[in-house]
Amino acid sequence: MKERNLDIKEHLFSGEYTFKDGVFFVPGVSRGAIYDLNSSNIYSINQSACDILTGETENPEFWKKLELMNLVSKEKSDRKKILPKLLQSPSLQFVWFEIVSDDCNESCIHCYAECMPSTYRKEMGIPAGEDKVSEPQKVDRKISFERWKQLINESYSLGCRKCQFIGGEPTLYKGENNETVFDLVEYARSVGFEFIEIFTNGTLLTKEKVQKIKTLGLNVAVSLYSNDEIIHDSITKTPGSFRKTMEALKLLQDVGVPVRVETVLMRPNEETINQTQKFVEEMGFSHKQPDVLRPNGRGDNPSIMPTRESIVKYSLMLSPSFSITKDVLSRNVSGHPCLLGKTAITDNGDVLPCIFSRSMIVGNTQKTTLTQVVSGDNLKSVWKSTKDNVLVCQDCEYRYACFDCRPLSEGANQGNGQYLTAPYPRCTYNPYTGEWAKGVWRVNEKGEPYYDETLKPIIEDVMQKGGENNES
After folding, report:
1. Shortest CA distance to 233 belongs to which of 271, 277, 207, 203?
2. Which end of the chain offers a freer environment for a tag, N or C, measured as fewer CB atoms within 10 Å?
3. pLDDT beyond 70 at 131
4. How far is CA 257 from the centre of its chain?
5. Spatial CB neighbours of 307, under 8 Å, sequence gap ≥ 6
6. What does the pLDDT look like over 173-194, one tens digit per residue?
7. H or E element, residue 190
């Protein structure tokens, strides 16, 4: 992949007018955008306006309009460029500690890591971990309790202050001397981690465990797939799981543990998704918009993908609703909007740039130190890859203000697109025409991007019904 340089300009001027500090121009292939950190606004401009800003043509009246918008001024004072200060050197900011990679007491139909109860795995003749590791990196043994402590300590020494303990089901973790996830969490807290979250299905939580969570000052994330018990249990393939998850949520709520409830949207639960969201709200828990199923692991199953109507309504970006802050711009010009500074460590030591990127192994902590992996080229190439290197996005004027998901982009293109370059499949903007909501971007068998308009009638119908969604 040939990396493209940043293309963002500040302190543009014409005659007596100069861009104010915090105002930037980002050119696209057919249009451009003015980013204003002072107001957080982003203004889309046509090619004629771009030509004026770059000095190709002159138009004093246009600059006067920019003055009225508080984007330029006539001050002649020396101005130091802000952009160099916005560029970050990649550093470790967040770690998923996947302390149980294979085992779970549920066997969810969409699991990205293909987890299941160990008894199921034995019955199917699948050795633990066999389908999770690529041959060149393969390590059979699991990370020991002491090694997990070393990795927690090393993560902290690398500057990380936020982490999540995840699985599989993390409460199933058992060290060589029967240590639990709470022993690891307690160590992370003693080291100095400021934000620690456990992502669990909740079914194994007891009053004692919940009290431990409260005492340690932890956050908890819980999956709930439907307010309908039958639907939830059919997705987990575990009878009684809904009842146990609800009991856990009540225990957590009673002692005041911060909880967020996450729902993956798929075909089996899409009919109850609105009721589920309302149900979660009425319980008083934090939640985000439903997370539309990613085609990873067992989720790469067309029969459980939600309908195209749900995909349009809940995941597609149908119109521009961008805003820009100093922190957002700093992150997006420095590297990947989502992955910069993040990494996941599986229970056999594999290091991944994202918990969903199961085949994108950038190192193994049983073969080397985490410090060496973090400073290595494999992970840095992911962290430092901006949207200037993503097909189609690289030609868009919104590229330094927009979200992105590499595992989703790769998975949605069924092997045709590369991990770092496949176009983002939830954006409907066509930067070559300046139009929104006509289709989505895909990659053909030759690896070339094309604008797929097969969803256009559904997009128009959803928008007419007021179901417009903006991921950004």
Report:
1. 203
2. N
3. no
4. 24
5. 267, 270
6. 999 999 999 999 999 999 999 9
7. helix 181-191
